[in-house]
Structures are given as C-alpha cells and as structure tokens.
C-alpha cells in the first residue's frame, strides 16, 4: 500500500480532518499546501520556517508566525542546520514546515534536513508566490506580517 493511500485510509478510519489535507511523496518527504500549513501553524501543531533571504522578506513580508532562517547562512550548511534546530528548541523530531519563494529551495532543504536526522519536515511546495504546485501563500491571501527589520 502506498503512503498516500495509507494516509487516506487512516483519515477515513479516524475522521481526522486536518490530516486528509496532507500528502506525501514518500514516508520521509511530506508536503503541505499553503492553507494547510497556515492552519497547522495557527493551531500550534507545526513550526513554520521561511528560508528566503532578507531581501525577499522585505519585498513580500513574511507569513504570520514564521521563523526566519536565511538559507544563505554565514555559518554555511552546518550553521543553517543548527539555526533550524534552534528554532525547534533542539528537537529534531518536532514538526516543521518550510517555505521559500516557489518551493525549489525548500525541496532541497527538506532532503538535507531529513538526511541530517530531522523527523517531520514538511515542504510547502507552492511557496510564497506560487508554482506548479499551487498559487502560493500571497495569492491565496494568507496572513503576512512586515519583515521586522524594515
């Protein structure tokens, strides 16, 4: 049974509505739409991490309640991964959702974090401005805040 089918069966059997929205490419690579992520963040069920650059944060604002971790990190890959871990109080099994501009960078970062032992890494593959995966956080009218360093 594939993971997608298994998740659907669990949802049907349990009636857990929020989980019916989650899809998976495999057991390790999980995806969320922007509205799914926003609902989970609002409920306190996932930490949203925006991995774009400060310039991008200034251009569009940032998703409400997002943690900001610049992927172009002065400490390189190890510094970046360490900062992500700091955002979840050192708990590599804490659920996190990654967002970038269009989902390209988050796809790569998701693979990196899973390889580094993170247990629940969700990719918001439509990103902030949209992609083939969906219209994006901004076009969906989801809540944003100004970049705090403006």
Q: Summary?
A:
By secondary structure, the chain is an alpha/beta fold. It is built from six helices and eight strands, in the order ααββαβαββαβαββ. It has a single domain, classed as Oxidized Rhodanese, domain 1 (3-Layer(aba) Sandwich), CATH 3.40.250.
Keywords:
alpha/beta, membrane, six-stranded mixed β-sheet, 14% strand, 150 residues, transmembrane helix, 8 strands, transmembrane, two-stranded antiparallel ribbon, 37% helix, Rhodanese-like domain-containing protein
Characterise this structure.
There is one protein chain. By secondary structure, this protein is an alpha/beta fold. The chain has a single domain, classed as Oxidized Rhodanese, domain 1. The chain has six helices and eight strands, in the order H-H-E-E-H-E-H-E-E-H-E-H-E-E. The relative contact order is 0.18. This is Rhodanese-like domain-containing protein.
Topology readout:
Elements (H helix, E strand, L loop, with lengths): L2 H12 L2 H4 L2 E2 L5 E2 L2 H9 L4 E4 L3 H7 L1 E2 L3 E2 L7 H12 L8 E4 L4 H12 L5 E3 L20 E2 L5
CATH hierarchy, class = Alpha Beta
In which range does the helix fraction lie?
25-40%
Amount of beta strand? 5-15%
Total number of domains? 1
Mean pLDDT over the full residue set:
85
**CATH homologous superfamily label:** Rhodanese-like domain
The total count of helices amounts to 6
Strand order across the largest sheet: 1-2-7-6-3-5
**Rounded radius of gyration (Å):** 15 Å
Distance between the termini: 49 Å
Low-confidence stretches are 1-27
What CATH architecture would you give? Answer: 3-Layer(aba) Sandwich
- DSSP strand tally: 8
| Outline type | globular
Question: Within the CATH hierarchy, at the fold level, what is the topology?
Answer: Oxidized Rhodanese, domain 1
Main structural class: alpha/beta
In sequence order, what are the helices and strands, one letter per element? HHEEHEHEEHEHEE
- What kind of sheet is the major sheet? 6 strands, mixed
